[in-house]
Write a structure and sequence with these properties.
Length: 305
């Protein structure tokens, strides 16, 4: 009974914290909120993985497409909203924390800060929002009007705005009025990291990514995944993740045994891939004269307590 009561209190506090966070970041019942979120994360994908037509002649047509060409921005909304699942009451079927909307608002705040500092290299323009729209968007006028400042920036200025997030801290009072802060720089790191990671993953081949992992279907067809075509990845096959050997050098503690191959054979300490893991040897460090700065039997000084 005690555990159930504790979990109930934690659940209520987390739900209350999320609602406070929604209020602080301005995520309300705006009918255009979903459109704004989608356009903002499309702008992220367009900046982090831009279209590169100049690479067609040098590397091939498969290197032209960017994040926008494969719908990566729209998928980022799904990915971010589905990522944090706590199973808490009041947060949907699986207790998700739908963070894509608040993330989009944080990015807009960074874009406004960039403009206030005159840190932008180009003027914001609604024309850049139009470039984010596709033929499946039913109402371009409504979509363009729902865009925030971040989506109107140039690709380079969007990255500059992301860099400013390292200076921001968001503070809320959620847990019984106690202050809670988090570094907004984490938002920039996550959206850039997610964008890069997802683009080169297998996500594009899934029929429905939001399904539980056991219910997802993937054709494992390199032609169906842009990044697989770009990198020449042949698809998932048994043994790709198998242990192929142990790395070691002649003067290191590991790597003894029959060598499978040698990397950089001409280097002073070539790296060998061996069939056995070898064994650790005793180190050469003499710690006989080492003394603890604060012996365990004495209390720590006040300044380090």
């Amino acid at each position: 009974m005690g555990d159930a009561s504790l979990w109930s209190r934690i659940s209520r506090r987390v739900v209350a914290a999320w609602r406070t966070l929604e209020s602080v970041l301005g995520q309300g019942p705006d009918p255009d909120a979903d459109v704004h979120t989608t356009l903002t994360l499309r702008a992220v994908a367009d900046a982090v993985v831009p279209r590169t037509p100049e690479l067609a002649d040098e590397l091939g047509r498969e290197h032209v497409a960017g994040g926008g060409d494969v719908g990566l921005g729209d998928f980022l909304v799904v990915y971010v909203n589905e990522l944090f699942q706590f199973g808490l009451p009041g947060l949907g079927a699986r207790g998700n924390l739908p963070l894509a909307g608040p993330v989009a608002n944080v990015l807009d705040a960074a874009a406004v800060a960039l403009l206030e500092r005159d840190g932008n290299g180009d003027a914001p323009s609604p024309d850049r929002v139009e470039a984010l729209l596709g033929p499946s968007d039913p109402d371009p006028t409504r979509h363009a009007g729902a865009a925030g400042t971040f989506a109107e920036l140039s690709r380079t200025d969007r990255l500059r705005a992301l860099g400013l997030l390292d200076e921001f801290e968001v503070g809320i009072r959620a847990f019984d009025g106690e202050p809670f802060e988090f570094d907004a720089g984490l938002v920039g790191q996550l959206v850039v990291g997610f964008t890069e990671m997802i683009y080169y993953s297998e996500w594009q081949g899934y029929d429905e990514f939001a399904q539980p992992p056991g219910d997802r279907v993937h054709p494992n067809d390199p032609a169906a995944v842009q990044s697989w075509r770009q990198t020449g990845y042949p698809g998932i096959a048994p043994g790709y993740a198998a242990l192929r050997g142990y790395l070691g050098t002649d003067d290191g503690p590991l790597g003894e045994g029959e060598a499978v191959t040698t990397v950089d054979a001409d280097a002073p300490s070539p790296v060998r891939v061996t069939r056995g893991s070898g064994r650790f040897r005793e180190n050469d460090y003499d710690t006989a004269d080492y003394e603890e700065p604060f012996p365990a039997e004495e209390p720590f000084p006040a300044e380090v307590a």
